Amino acid sequence: MRIECERCLVFAAGLIVGAGAYAMVKNGKAKKAAVKALAKGMELQEKVAAAAERTKESVADTIAEAKCCMEEEK
Question: Which of 24, 47, 58, 66 has the highest CB neighbour count under 10 A?
Fold first, then answer.
């Protein structure tokens, strides 16, 4: 019984949040704010991806140097 009540409450909360989000998107100012927030999020995603790529390249260089040092010691 308790699990069913929790599921009903979660479903109801989802409906309320969805209705609120729909109302905000219909509002012009809220839609513009959402678009700006999404654009900033995409910009951040690109920056993080670039930083991850630089880190990956740096690690690959370090591994190559370590392999070279191992071969020299043999």
Answer: 24
